[in-house]
Write a structure and sequence with these properties.
Distance between the termini: 23 Å
Number of helices: 0
Shape: globular
Strand content: 35-45%
Strand order of the largest sheet: 4-3-2-1-5
Oligomer: single chain
Number of strands: 5
Radius of gyration: 11 Å
């Protein structure tokens, strides 16, 4: 991932779909994924900054995430 993810950025994950960055630090980003809302662990996942699994979404507006 070469793009910078900042607070509020919409991102894409190959399995979990579109999500929104809700916390960002130098090492990690916490992303809210609506597709995981019903999961036992909840809809948020903490991922390492720079992970290959995340990319900035081409779409930066989503009614479910705005």
């Amino acid at each position: 991932m070469s793009e910078v993810i900042s607070l509020g950025t919409l991102v894409e994950h190959p399995v979990w779909g579109r999500g929104k960055a809700v916390e960002v630090s130098s090492a990690h980003v916490v992303v809210h994924f609506p597709s995981l809302a019903g999961s036992e662990q909840g809809p948020r996942r903490k991922l390492q900054v720079g992970t290959e699994q995340l990319s900035v979404s081409a779409v930066q507006s989503d009614p479910e995430l705005d």
